[in-house]
Amino acid sequence: MKSMKKSLLHVAFAALLLVGCAQNEITDISPDAAPPVGFKVFTDAQTRGLITNGGASSVNATGIQSTGFGVFAYYTGQSTWASAAANTAPNFMYNQKVAYSASEWGYTPVKYWPNTEGDKISFFAYAPHSTTTKSGIDITPTTTSTKGAPTMRFTLQTAPADMVDLVATNATQTGDDKTIDVEKKTSKVSFKLKHVLTRASFKAKLDASLTATAQTHVIVTGMRILGTEKRDATNTGNSVAANAASKFYSAATYQWSDGTWASVPAPTVQAAPYELKAIMPLASKTDISAKYTTQGIELPQAGTEIALLNTNQYLFLIPPHDATTPTGITAPTDVRMQIDYDILTVDASLAEGHSVTSATATVSLPNGTLKRASAYNFTFTVGLEKVQVSASVEDWATETGVYVPSADATNVATIITAIGTLNTAKGNDKNCNYFVINCTGGSYGSINLASATVTNFKSGDRIELNFTSAPGISGITLPTGWKADKTTLSVVGKIILKKD
């Protein structure tokens, strides 16, 4: 491969949120020569940001600002990635860490775009950044001379509080999100980092057949995901069931080539039961009976759900089955769980002041759940004879508090006013970069927005003009430094304005 020519075009990074102020992160690489190389990542608190976990002492507890994100980049000259990948090493960036310091994102050494027309660079990004397997991320290529497309071997943390919400790009992304065969240009090249694991949370409630009263209490005391081996909580006995056909994986390989989890090399099946007590809000129940010393979670009256994990705590798991179209769980034995609970009856006539019956129920998580990039809430229903489990799909972004500033408009003048309102919103929350104006009314004709106040918007910010009736737009004039994805619109639809 010929030597790489360099121009004064700097590679810069900026992370944005495409739809809202806290969702998947987008990192931009800018070949703009004028400004100095700069970095910014828009995240909120750790429970609303990209990297989510609940362990205050965890290596990833402060999120992406603590860990940074990593980039691999391959220069292939005039060749495409498809034709050159097998014989190309990460010769442009090798696990380049983009770090946050003094309110700025930065990396060294600075890299420059090749100035030969038609030369190409392919980029692969992920977060949290890792140089060791401490965070469960083991990168291939292992050296700067290893040829071929990169992969990630991801391993679940031993402690559930330290689980990592892994995000990454993939080579199939297109349009503004394309990261493969990128050539020198004046607009930005976007990195959209996507969730690649599946997220789970758990709740429990009482069935109508088992109603709690002032004397009878149902208390959840533990929970675990079963492995292939039969062990108890100390890994020495046989009180915990085994799931020989388990698809609960402790490690697997992520393929940047298509954004899926590989079947080759084979994923590693978890052997020991994966105990969840450490992240459950277990508490003393001596207020029920003074001599009942087991910590647990009391279930209220039938129909009322109660969380079984600590606030803002989730499990981030490797999907049991994955393909370009995620499939998740396909059999009852794929992922099985156990829930431990006590039924305690207060009885002053007894020496202990109560009687207690302990039970352990084994349930299969439902088919079709635990798909890549999807979030689920599983609810255990505890009854007289059995425990059942149901699942609901959650919007991963909704759980993290997405806020999309919006305004309404009925004509050109009110669109200009709405843009000014959103400009103020941008000034109040710099983490936001997607805004919506809901436009109603009749024909708009030629729209002139050149006078709109846009001083707070930054490069990459988008304003969606959402027309709910045929707008009859024949042309559009924008403020300096803005562009539109279309300039005419005769039917119901959207026009996206983007700040260069």
Describe the overall structure.
By secondary structure, this protein is mainly beta. The protein folds into three domains: 12-195, no CATH class; 198-250 and 272-399, Immunoglobulin-like (Sandwich); 406-499, no CATH class. Helix content is 6%, strand content 34%. The protein contains four helices and 31 strands. It has helices at 64-67, 81-84, 396-399, 412-428, and strands spanning 12-17, 25-30, 69-77, 93-101, 104-106, 120-127, 137-140, 151-155, 167-168, 189-192, 194-195, 198-206, 216-225, 249-255, 260-261, 268-269, 274-275, 297-298, 306-307, 315-317, 336-346, 354-364, 375-382, 387-394, 406-409, 434-439, 445-448, 462-467, 473-477, 482-484, 493-499. The strands form seven sheets. A six-stranded antiparallel beta sheet has the order 5-4-3-6-9-11. Strands 7, 8, 14, 15 and 16 form a five-stranded antiparallel beta sheet that branches. Strand 30 (482-484) and strand 31 form a beta hairpin. The relative contact order is 0.13.
Taking pLDDT < 50 over at least 5 consecutive residues as the criterion, the unreliable ranges are 1-62, 398-403
Shape: globular
For the report, how would you describe the main beta sheet? 6 strands, antiparallel
Number of domains: 3
| Strand segment count | 31
Beta-strand residue percentage: 25-35%
Gyration radius from CA atoms, angstroms: 27 Å
The DSSP helix count reads 4
Could you say which structural class the secondary elements and strand pairing correspond to? mainly beta
Q: If you average the pLDDT, what whole number results?
A: 80
**Level of helix content?**
under 10%
Terminal CA distance: 34 Å
The strand line-up of the biggest sheet is 5-4-3-6-9-11
